[in-house]
Design a protein that fits this description.
There is one protein chain. By secondary structure, the protein is of the alpha+beta class. The chain contains 11 helices and 79 strands. Helix 6 packs antiparallel against helix 8, helix 6 runs antiparallel to helix 11 and helix 8 runs antiparallel to helix 10. The longest helix has 46 residues. It is found in: Membrane. Keywords: Disulfide bond, Glycoprotein, Immunoglobulin domain, Membrane, Signal, Transmembrane, Transmembrane helix.
Length: 1093
């Protein structure tokens, strides 16, 4: 019963998305500072036909100029903690089916800090009772979000904690105050929103007869630029009163300052350079106390210019458009200023401020016209005023008229590369009030330099047309305040020209290697592509036997010297004939033929020669480096011979290190590194011997002799065992043939690549193999010893003997309750219950059916996957359970898990739980990196077996309830995951997971798998998001070909992992790391990631 429930849950997870949609991007928790901009993002897996709206704390958000929906996202300008903080969710509704889905809610947290604070005396309650030696407690009153951090200042100097100065929260405790503590005390409060400094400060003035006592301290002033500023300062018991500007002083009368008779300071024509702290000091000549400075600040008022950004929304060209009887609301934002300005609006008919009520009114700083009339048109101005003066910004209000569409575009047919023009005749107001846009296939399209729209006539011009431009085009006429008008579509037909795609380029081939040179062409009909070799005099001749032309691809089966030369690719169809000539150069990468001993020993004061000789074509050049620094040698003692050997005259101890010999030519580079050890020359003889070491050499000779003898004996034993096994197998086969003389042998049907009648075994009429000598015993199948005999295999495992597949045989009748999971590349994929795997219980397995038995590509891919899983044995790779091939269709039976494929699991962790289906909890950081590490370990095992997966993605991985990951290969490319595949050159490929060389040249390797691995890791961190979801398949392909397809890391990825993924996505396959390297590095990240409690 549990197995039935499990299957239905898995199928529900897979099919639950087919008829609806899911959120590819959920809104995320966000923290911003009050006054800043916040944007909550939301996107569904399919955008066509969806309508979005947002809710805040369960209430629908209404669009305003400050808080509005942009596409599917919600934009909040100047976040206000009083009205914007809360829980937000995005609701997407299918306009056709009315199906609605609510996203995960996100918290918008707004950090704020009040713009005023003050210092209050807490103990004692009145400053009149403060005397010498009294303890004083001051409190800093400031409000803000989160935890506030406080700092205290006396006369602008920051106070530090001492025995007398104690700080706790927002309080400052001064123990035993003395006259030396007199001064102006201020505080500053800080949080994520910034810092605010107190304006209302506390003045400490302890009275006494032995020191000067301030009666009136100077007060901070704010003045207009160019005006005078006055600071008062009154002391008693002071013989002299001095003024200071910062550290400058005492001040004397000048053109800038005047000290008046009453000791007040007058600043003349105050400017920006006069801003700062001014201090007043009262000095009593016979007082033992140090004089104390009381400070005040001078600030100059200012008001910055206003720009179009001070109006919200921003009005292009300074024009505000609204339909007659429509509403318009424009908010005026204050410019930067000191002090804050007052704002008001002026209308076109009066210079007086507009009233707060009426048909045209002002609400706060917003201008509101509820029902615009034509008489309301004109210029409206926002004015900002403060002490420094006034600034203003305005816009022109236009009352719009409805547009009309006179004539739509007509269909156009052009040759590829020519210019296409669509006309749209309309009547409307001048731009930007009336604008013309164009739609392609009823959707907006990205414009580039080839496309231009004349707003005055509405004409769309497409230059240098491409095949991707074909489609249906409609013009859209939009006037502010009215419903857009859309014309009937007109078709653009492109006559595709005959061309190479991509154009072949010159190649350098390694001698002896197996290489492919591609030539692919496109046209209005499928071109015929053929290669020719060009000889002297531009004569062409047939290709040599070892070079094959297969559908326009040159296959070099062992490159030879004579393959060098010019080759012409010719493409033809009814449109004509084109050709391109390339130069193929045959090179031989450098090979070392003589190498120095590693390590090499040298003796101080003697010469040494380190041999390094390489061969290749062209002849390689030799370069030496020491400790990875090229040519860092003393030219007087170091010499490189013509054959590449390095000679060192009079070896020094400093010459010790690692020496690298690099041989290079146009075919590549080879490097060999040795270690040079320099020993003392004491006891060294020129004949190469060292006193006292003769016996050591004799012992070494004996050791080598014994080792070689043991190795030779071992080889003889191995060869003898192999000969005996071959003889034993031959005798058994001969005995079987004598016992079954009528059995058909070697009848090749040509219908299967799975060993059925391939001449390597014996097949009965049902297609099952008898070569394994199956026998019946007590109703069970018993295999003889012959079935377990190991057979030799080719290096690429492309030919498996019939007995090899027979070992995989699984009884078809043991599969029951088969339920369709989806359709793959060569047939249907099922979930089934299998008997006999676990004793006493059925096991859920995945069954891949080979239904296209006569499709050679399907047969090859089925066999490739079969060979791959049969060779692999790893805890993170699905095991091949068996093969059913007694009748058609053939079944490949693979291990499955209780939670199904990884893609559906990731989607389930990101969606809100609905209904009765169980939902897994979101992955923690340690669980996520553990999954990535398991994936890396599995792919390392696959690459170590020289196998390529070709379709690594979350959809082709499995996960179990204990969070164990297994690499599998369901490849449901026909229906369930059809959106994740792309039809390209008659092949269905997972485009978004593939590097360029795999897409354009069918070059699959471990380097292409490492690219797909990085994409799968990205899926894990984004909880199953589709890569580049905002781009179409065609746009992804074009970006990939241009080299500007860039992956963006998820914010939760560890930094070390981001670096690894960037290397995996490198455009050059050679620069991508190996799976072994990746597995080790991710293992280190996993160890360093703390485990959640």
């Amino acid at each position: 019963m549990r197995v039935y429930l499990l299957c239905f849950i898995i199928i529900g997870l897979v099919y639950g998305q087919d008829d609806t949609f899911y959120f590819a991007k959920n809104p995320q928790d966000l923290s911003v500072v009050a006054g800043d901009e916040a944007e909550l993002e939301c996107a569904a897996s399919v955008n066509a036909g969806l309508v979005y709206f947002w809710q805040q704390d369960g209430v629908t958000v209404e669009n305003t100029t400050r808080k509005l929906q942009v596409g599917s996202n919600l934009l909040i300008r100047r976040a206000d903690p009083n009205i914007d903080q809360g829980q937000y969710s995005c609701i997407a509704t299918d306009a056709t089916t009315a199906f609605s889905l609510t996203s995960r809610s996100a918290l918008l947290n707004i950090h704020w800090l009040s713009n005023r604070s003050q210092v209050i005396l807490q103990v004692p309650s009145k400053d009149e009772v403060i005397t010498d030696g009294v303890d004083i407690v001051m409190r800093c009153d400031a409000e803000g979000s989160g935890e506030l951090r406080f700092e205290w200042f006396r006369n602008a100097e920051r106070l530090r904690k001492t025995d007398r100065y104690q700080f706790k929260a927002n309080k400052f405790h001064l123990k035993g105050a003395t006259p030396r503590d007199n001064g102006v005390y201020k505080c500053a409060a800080t949080n994520e929103a910034g810092t605010v400094t107190s304006k209302d400060n506390f003045v400490l003035a302890i009275q006494g007869d032995r020191w000067s006592h301030i009666l009136k301290e100077p007060q901070s002033v704010l003045v207009k630029k160019g005006s005078s500023a006055l600071f008062d300062c009154v002391y008693e018991h002071a013989d002299v009163i001095e003024w200071y500007f910062g550290e400058k002083g005492p001040l004397e009368n000048s053109t800038s300052f005047s000290v008046l008779h009453n000791n007040s300071l007058l600043v003349h024509k105050a400017d920006m350079h006069n801003e700062g702290l001014y201090g007043c000091v009262g000095i009593r000549g016979e007082s033992p106390e140090i004089p104390v400075k009381y400070t005040a600040e001078l600030e100059i008022a200012y008001l910055e210019d206003m720009t179009e950004n001070n109006l919200e929304p921003v009005l292009p060209s300074g024009i505000g458009a609204v339909a007659e009887d429509g509403q318009i609301r424009v908010t005026c934002l204050p410019p930067r200023s000191l002090p804050p300005p007052s704002l008001y609006w002026k209308g076109p008919l009066s210079a007086l401020p507009l009233p707060p009520s009426g048909p045209i009114r002002v609400d706060g700083t917003s201008l509101i016209i509820d029902a615009a009339k034509r008489r309301d048109a004109g210029n409206y101005t926002c004015v900002a005023e403060n002490l420094s003066g006034s600034k203003e910004i305005g816009f022109r209000l236009v009352i719009t008229s409805p547009p009309s569409l006179e004539r739509g575009p007509t269909s156009v047919t052009v040759d590829e590369g020519e210019t296409a023009v669509f006309y749209c005749q309309f009547k409307g107001m001048e731009p930007p009030i009336t604008t013309v846009h164009w739609l392609k296939d009823n959707a907006s399209f990205r414009q580039d330099s080839r496309l231009s729209i004349d707003q005055s006539t509405g004409t769309l011009t497409i230059t240098n047309t491409q095949v991707s431009d074909k489609g249906d085009y409609s013009c859209l006429v939009n006037t502010t305040g009215y419903k857009p008008l859309v014309s009937k579509p007109a078709s653009l037909h492109i006559k595709e020209k005959l061309k190479f795609s991509p154009r072949p380029v010159d190649k350098k081939l390694e001698r002896g290697s197996v290489k492919k040179v591609y030539c692919k062409a496109q046209g209005s009909s499928q071109p015929l592509v053929k290669w020719l070799k060009i000889g002297d005099g531009d004569n062409t001749f047939d290709l040599p036997v070892h070079v094959q032309d297969i559908n326009g691809t040159l296959h070099f089966n062992g490159v030879k010297w004579e393959d060098k030369g010019r080759y012409m690719c010719v493409a033809s169809n009814p449109q004509g004939v084109i050709n391109v000539t390339i130069e193929i150069d045959v090179v031989e990468t450098p090979k070392f033929v003589v190498l120095p001993r590693n390590p090499t020993e040298a003796f101080e004061g003697y010469s040494i020669q380190m041999d390094c000789v390489a061969e290749g074509d062209p002849k390689p050049t030799i370069q030496w480096d020491k400790n990875s620094v090229m040519n860092d040698f003393d030219s007087k003692r170091f010499h490189v011979l013509e054959n590449g050997s390095l000679v060192i005259d009079e070896v020094h101890f400093s010459d010790e290190g690692k020496y690298g010999c690099t041989a290079g030519n146009s075919g590549g580079l080879k490097r060999y590194e040795i270690s040079l050890h320099v020993r003392s020359s004491e006891g060294y003889k020129p004949d190469g011997t060292i006193e006292g070491l003769e016996s050591e050499g004799s012992m070494m000779t004996k050791t080598v002799t014994i080792t070689l003898s043991a190795a030779a004996a071992y080889m003889v034993l191995v060869i003898g065992l192999m000969a005996w096994c071959r003889y034993r197998r031959h005798k058994r086969k001969q005995a079987y043939l004598e016992a079954n003389p009528t059995s058909p042998v070697g009848e090749a049907t040509g219908l299967s690549l799975l060993g059925k009648g391939d001449g390597n075994g014996i097949a009965n009429q049902n297609g099952t193999l008898n070569g394994s000598e199956q026998k019946q015993k007590n109703g069970e199948v018993v295999r003889s010893d012959g079935e377990n005999t190991a057979h030799s295999q080719g290096s690429n495992q492309s030919r498996r003997s019939k007995n090899g597949y027979d070992k995989l045989s699984f009884p078809r009748q043991d599969l029951h309750n088969m339920m369709l999971l989806g359709n793959g590349e060569f047939g249907e994929v099922y979930l089934a219950q299998a008997r006999g795997i676990k004793e006493g219980a059925d096991t859920v397995v995945m069954v891949k059916a080979l239904q296209q038995m006569r499709d050679e590509n399907a047969l090859q891919e089925f066999k490739r996957q079969l060979d791959m899983f049969s060779r692999l044995d790893h805890s993170n790779i699905s095991k091949l359970i068996g093969l059913c091939r007694d009748s058609e269709p053939h079944y490949m039976v693979l291990q499955y898990t209780d939670w199904g494929d990884l893609k559906q699991f990731l989607l389930a962790t990101r969606k809100e739980s609905k209904g009765s289906k169980p939902r897994p909890a979101p992955l923690t950081p340690s669980q996520t990196i553990a999954l990535v590490h398991q994936l890396a370990m599995a792919m390392e095992h696959i690459s170590n077996h020289r196998t390529v997966h070709r379709d690594l993605a979350a959809r082709n991985c499995l996960i179990s309830s204990d969070l164990s990951l297994k690499v599998s290969f369901s490849a449901l490319c026909k229906d369930t995951y059809a959106k994740e595949y792309f039809k390209h050159r008659n092949q269905t490929i997972p485009l978004r997971w593939m590097p360029l060389e795999a897409v354009t040249e069918d070059d699959y390797s471990c380097k292409s798998d490492i690219y797909s691995f990085a994409a799968t890791v990205w899926e894990i961190y984004t909880r199953g998001e589709l890569p580049f979801s905002r781009l179409s398949d065609r746009e992804v392909l074009e970006s990939l070909q241009r080299g500007d397809l860039h992956w963006k890391h998820h914010k939760n990825m560890p930094e070390q992992l981001k670096v690894i993924l960037d290397r995996c996505w490198n455009q050059n396959p050679r620069d991508r790391p190996t799976f072994s390297f990746v597995a080790v590095e991710i293992g280190d990240i996993k160890v360093s990631t703390p485990t959640e409690p």
